[in-house]
Amino acid sequence: MRILHILNHTRRLNGHVHAAVDLACAQVHLGHQVYVASEGGDFDALLRANGIQTLAVGHQRKIPSLLRALSRLNGYIRQYDIDVVHAHMMTSAVIAFAICRLRRIPLITTVHNEFEKSATLMGLGTRVIAVSDVVGASMRRRGVPESKLKVVLNGTIGSSRSEGRSEQPKTLCSPSILFVGGLHPRKGLTDLFDAFDIVHTSFPSAHLYIVGDGPHREEYKARVAALRSASAITFVGPTTDPYPYMLGADIFVLPSHADPAPLVLSEAREAGCAVIGSSVDGIPQLLENGEAGLLVPPRDPAALAKMLGHLLEAPERIADWQRKSQLRIEHLTIERVARETLEVYSSAMPRDKVTALAT
């Protein structure tokens, strides 16, 4: 099958880029010809190393730029005789929609950021992939027919991005609590700061590590500086490989206010952390509804502090939840995601086309 993924860029900044890159590489490993059209970015070298041709398509939301993008995308689809186009963001879906209709090839869209109002436009796809059950339910409420909506739960274990990563745990002060992600309000970091400040009074040896970057970094550092526990909170900053921090951490916390299906949870579980996540969006599903990780209400620092204290007061509880993190973890592999996505592609094609591709 000849597959063209289209997304705004291939920079490390966004989780949907990681998911698209993982999927594209996994599809190559399953024997398909894969192309990625975008404005380019950090992952282009990795894509090319995996046999994926990167194609330039601008995504500026201005009429001249969009017209050029339409022309380029149409040329690529014709030149490479593409069988299916897979769009990962709203602008990509809008650009691809008319061309796919004209050329009578399936347009698959993936809803990565359901919390954005523009996510409704992802319903333009012949098939619409939701990255968790909650996202699927939301898209149904937005009017996407059941017949075109498919849920493919995010997973990243075994991805090409993880090849060659360090397996040496970082040495962290124990007991260690870790957050990895973007530093912006949706991730609920202020709740984590307040919760840690509460528990640090009873557990002064505990240390909190913040790995990541974002527009609110200086604001968050100033907020932390005013806390009693400030000396026990470390802002690590951005890193291309957070996995060693996960390997070295005792507890991983994701206190998000909204998170459709965060890849970081499969990585934290793979690393064997005890995991605490807020009970929003796709987080419960990625934690086996509380069997593979602990769930707390979002926007509730007191509840989060109580759960952290519950673990910190008994090291054997941390060890128990580290073991539980491995429950049904095989379901979070990128190979499973790739195979389920290929089934979605086939469901969007005429039967004779599917037969021809299989022979």
TrEMBL record:
<dbReference type="InterPro" id="IPR028098">
    <property type="entry name" value="Glyco_trans_4-like_N"/>
</dbReference>
<dbReference type="GO" id="GO:0016757">
    <property type="term" value="F:glycosyltransferase activity"/>
</dbReference>
<feature type="domain" description="Glycosyltransferase subfamily 4-like N-terminal">
    <location>
        <begin position="14"/>
        <end position="155"/>
    </location>
</feature>
<dbReference type="Pfam" id="PF13692">
    <property type="entry name" value="Glyco_trans_1_4"/>
</dbReference>
<dbReference type="Pfam" id="PF13439">
    <property type="entry name" value="Glyco_transf_4"/>
</dbReference>
<protein>
    <submittedName>
        <fullName>Glycosyltransferase</fullName>
    </submittedName>
</protein>
